[in-house]
């Protein structure tokens, strides 16, 4: 590894290299060193396997609610016009009640 750092014109002791720079140097070393080829191959295979399971680099996406689910939320009171009033009561009145509590 020392030879690699010298080849990149890095002569500072490892403990004197800022973490961000050291991370970059180490990442490049591990990606280019033939000793780690097997590890890279295993990681690549694992990444491909996870993609086949639908766990690739895609961001998580919520499923759309069905009409029945939306109706259930309205009927249970979780959605509707009354919820705002209850929400503001909790935010603005609760601290007052707690403060005035004996």
3D architecture notes:
By secondary structure, the chain is an all-alpha fold. The chain folds into two domains: about 1-50, no CATH class; about 65-100, no CATH class. The protein is about 65% helix and about 0% strand. It contains five helices and no strands. The longest helix has 18 residues, at about 85-100. The chain is elongated and about 70 Å long.
Can you describe this structure in just a few lines?
InterPro entries: KIAA1958. The chain is mostly helical and 102 residues long.
Protein topology:
Blueprint (H helix, E strand, L loop, with lengths): L1 H6 L11 H14 L4 H16 L14 H10 L6 H18 L2
Number of domains: 2
Intertermini distance: 68 Å
Strand content: under 5%
Q: Quote the average pLDDT.
A: 77
* Biggest pleated sheet: none
Helix content: 55-70%
Alpha-beta classification: mainly alpha
Shape: elongated
Number of helices: 5
Number of strands: 0
Radius of gyration, in angstroms, nearest whole number: 28 Å
User: How are helices and strands ordered from N to C?
Assistant: HHHHH
- Spans of at least 5 consecutive residues with low confidence: 96-102
């Amino acid at each position: 590894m020392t030879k690699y750092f010298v080849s990149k014109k890095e002569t500072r002791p490892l403990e004197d290299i800022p973490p961000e720079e050291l991370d970059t140097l180490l990442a490049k070393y591990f990606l280019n060193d033939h000793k780690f080829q097997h590890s890279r191959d295993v990681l690549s295979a694992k990444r491909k396997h996870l993609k086949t399971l639908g766990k690739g680099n895609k961001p998580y996406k919520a499923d759309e609610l069905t009409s029945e689910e939306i109706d259930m939320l309205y009927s249970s009171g979780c959605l509707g016009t009354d919820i705002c009033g209850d929400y503001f009561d909790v935010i603005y009145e609760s601290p007052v009640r707690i403060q005035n509590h004996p």
